[in-house]
Amino acid sequence: MPAAVTSLWTRLRGTIAGFSVAQRTIAIIGIAVLAMGVFALTSWMSRPTLTPLFSGLSASDASAVVEQLRSGAVPYELTDGGSTVLVPESAVYEQRLAAAAAGLPTADSAGYSLFDKMGVTSSEFQQSVTYKRAIEGELARTIGALENVTTASVQLAIPEESVFVSQQIEPTASVFIETARGVALPAEQVEAIVHLTSAAVSGMKPENVAVVDAAGRTLSAIGGEATRNADQQAGAYETRMTASVQQMLDTVLGAGNATVSVAAEMQQAATERVDETYTPVDGALPASEETSSERYTGTGGQTGVLGTELPAGVGGAGTYESTQTNRSNVVNKTVESTSTPAGAVARQTVAVAVNADGTDAVDVAQLEALVTSAAGIDRARGDQVTVELVAFSDQGALAAQAALDAAREAEEAERAAETLRTSIVAAVVVLGLIAATIAGVVIVRRRRAAAEDDAVLTLTPVDEPLDRFDALTRGLATPLLDQAPTVPLPAMTVEPEPDPEPVQVALDRRRAEIGDFARRDPARTADLLRRLVRDSSDA
After folding, report:
1. Ranges 186-195, 276-285, 334-343, 519-528: which has the least confidence
2. What is the mean pLDDT of residues 217-223?
3. In what helix (H) or strand (E) does residue 512 lie, and over which residues does it extend?
4. How far is CA 324 from CA 321, 334, 417, in A?
């Protein structure tokens, strides 16, 4: 093993041996965390990128695809409740071709593809049932493609056609849907499902479609065109009207000086009314007139005397004229058709309470007129408006103020707790940095002390017993003194002391270092000196 590696290993062992129990524990934990991080990073970097192979699979198709992947030893993952299969990106196209060769995923047998299996000998009943199943399958497939819908099933009740109008029955439909976990369909989407289903069947009305979800909740019931019933529509109308009137009163009387309550009754069914009005013209002529007249001219015989009946006689001259006249007097006719859809306001009442103590000189009649105009009151349909001056209670305001104060105190306490948590975290981080700095300084000092010990151990041993420090310093100075000139110099006059020689400077520096080491660690110095004396005596 190279000397550099041996020296490094020796220093490392010496450094570790000088650690305390706490330092060793921290070092072990740090090494373990580092190893775990390296392992996790390596595992994450070596993990292949997964890409969807198929999504929106049924349970049977997902099972078949998984079995094929297992047989080919291809890694996979299932997401979205098992409906999506993920495979490595490099194997996506290959596995799709293999699945297509195996007929996976299987094509949906519902829909108009049912007619592909029908023969020429199918009866009219079979054709009718197959047609109904085809429409159900196509509707279920279309509804299942909507957002937030995972599964859909449609059942149609299409009665047989009758030549008698009184015996005709309207078709109905029931739709079952299963949504994604934790997702509720909005009213607009349910209404879209209702209209989509009703438009696919001839003669079906939207109010004859029922929609039910997997939790058993009725989203649209038979008899209601919209998914929101009359109560929901009334609530929405009341909220909107209350906000409008309240805003006007706050502007006129000031905030908190008036309160509004609106109750509305909605039209639950659509109605249609046709009025025909007949207005006669001036003079009151009859609706129709009929005139008939006849006129005869010619010579006649005498009364009571037989007429001549001669065979060759010549008849007398005579004429006949008949006239018949029919006259219809046209009158003014007006036809008025009125259609009222479901959800229209049938009747509403508005109640306004005004604070008698907070307002001065309030004209109740004028205020009632303002509310009537703002709410669109129609007296003909029975709407009512009531405006009264009453004394308001201040308990609600006091309770609201107390709630605001409590909320403010809670917010301040939360802010203080957050500040305390931040301070604690910052203190822990700072203490950790300080501890790491101290540990680094200790390690550096110990490494420096170990290096100095190695330097002391490399000192040249002396051949004769001397005083402890003289022997140590003389042993260090021996190789330096051997280089000094030995030729005697001639006598010189006394002159100022010259500058010290470089050798002497180096010797003094080494003595100072040894003295500093002896003062810093006397026990170790004594041990080193004993080892030097022992080596000198052995030599």
Report:
1. 276-285
2. 81
3. helix 502-520
4. 11, 32, 110
Using one digit for the tens of pLDDT, what is the confidence trace for 102-117? 888 775 556 777 777 7
Question: Which residues make Cβ contacts (< 8 Å) with residue 325, sequence separation at least 6?
Answer: 289, 290, 291, 292
Cβ–Cβ under 8 Å, residues 137 and 153: no
Task: List, in sequence order, the alpha helices (H) in 212-283.
Answer: 230-253
- Residue 356: is its pLDDT beyond 50? yes
**Measured between alpha carbons, how far is 311 from 332 in angstroms, rounded to an integer?**
64
Phi-psi region of 306 (alpha: psi -120 to 50; beta: other; left: phi over 0): beta
Q: Which CATH architecture has domain 123-160+169-222?
A: 2-Layer Sandwich (3.30)
Tell me how far CA of residue 480 lies from CA of 133, 303, 462, 476, 522, in angstroms.
112, 197, 14, 8, 27
Instruction: Write out the two tokens for 519.
Output: 């003062």
Q: How far is CA 21 from the centre of its chain?
A: 52
111: left (phi over 0), alpha (psi -120 to 50) or beta: left
- Domain spans in the chain, listed from the N-terminal domain onward: 3-46, 50-102, 123-160+169-222, 254-271+338-392, 394-434
Q: Name residues whose C-beta falls within 8 Å of residue 462's C-beta, 6 or more positions apart in sequence.
A: 471, 474, 475, 478, 532, 536
Residue 454 CB: number of other CB atoms within 10 A? Answer: 13
User: What DSSP state is assigned to residue 58?
Assistant: -
The tokens for 137 are 């399958």
Protein fold of 50-102:
Alpha-Beta Plaits (3.30.70)
What is the rounded distance in angstroms from the CA atom of residue 315 to the CA atom of residue 302? 15
The pLDDT value recorded for residue 176 is 93
Pairwise CA distance, residues 520 & 499, whole Å: 31
Which residues, in sequence order, are bridge partners of residue 258? 354
**Mean of the pLDDT values across residues 30-59?**
82
Give the CA distances from residue 214 to residues 14, 56, 181, 188, 227, in Å, rounded to whole numbers and listed in that order. 71, 18, 11, 18, 17
Residue 375 and residue 350 in contact, taking contact as beta carbons nearer than 8 Å: yes
pLDDT tens-place string over residues 2-23: 677 777 777 777 777 777 777 7
- What's the mean pLDDT when you consider all of the chain? 78
% pLDDT > 90, the chain: 13
Longest Cα–Cα distance in the chain: 220
253 and 359 Cβ atoms separated by less than 8 Å: yes
Highest-confidence segment of 63-77, 283-297, 437-451, 474-488:
63-77
